[in-house]
Amino acid sequence: MSMIPIISKLYCSSSQTVLEVRKRPHVVNGGGFVVTDCSGQRVVFRVDGCGILGTKGQLILRDGEGDALLLMRRKGGMVEALSIYKKWKGYSLDYEGLQNLVFSLKEPNSCLVRNNGIRISSEPRAANNKGWNFEIRGYFPDRNCSIVDIRGNVIAQVGVNKEVEKLMESKDLYHVVVKPGMDQAFVVGVIAILDYIYGESTYC
Fold it and tell me: InterPro entries, from UniProt (predicted)?
């Protein structure tokens, strides 16, 4: 089994991993969400959105200790507004705060590209002809979507426990199944961007 460390091999597991995601209320905690292991006891990641950071189009992924791992930033400006895609950049952060570009995400910005999903390129750029490595399939607000690689293999799946959904009558608690070898921090970073795109807990 090969490891795919996009942020760090520290976040790649040799076995399949189930993460629980719980959205934080804007009113109390400024939004964002907390990611725990499948027992719900140990915090693995936190995501701060613009309700905490105070900057639109910017998200930070932190580890369980609160240290920043990944800065995600949406490009802006007139050129971006006229483009058929909106672009996000993901930068890994080291202990000195230095930024290193690790992935780019393209979000369709026009009905002209409706058939094209949200696509992600890891850095260095994909060597394949398509120019991207991963794609989102399904619809995130329904908590029914997956991240697939260029060959169509599912590397992470977002879902909701049906019993929990009936109890809570909301999709504020859901799970992510990450396949062996895949970088869990990268997967959570992509989910943070999806959360923002669809105007959920990280958006303001």
Answer: LOR, LOR_sf, Tubby-like_C
pLDDT tens string 77-114: 655 556 677 899 999 987 777 789 999 999 887 555 44
Question: What is the DSSP code string of the chain?
Answer: ---B-SS-GGGB-SS-EEEEEEEPPHHHH-S-EEEEETTS-SEEEEEE-HHHH--TTEEEEEETTS-EEEEEEE--SHHHHHSSEEEEEEEEE-TT--EEEEEEEEEE-SGGGTTS--EEEESSPP-STTS-SEEEEEEGGGTEEEEEETTS-EEEEEE--HHHHHHHSSSSEEEEEE-TTBBHHHHHHHHHHHHHHTT-TT--
User: Looking at residue 74, what is its pLDDT?
Assistant: 92
Q: Average per-residue pLDDT in the chain? A: 86
Count CB neighbours of 155 within 10 A: 20
The answer to whether the Cα torsion of 188, 193, 196, 200 is positive or negative is: negative
Q: Please, is 153 exposed, middle or buried when counting C-beta atoms within 10 Å of its C-beta (0-12, 13-18, 19+)?
A: exposed
Residues 154, 155, 157: CA angle, nearest 5 degrees = 75
| Rounded Cα distance, 89 and 43, in Å | 25
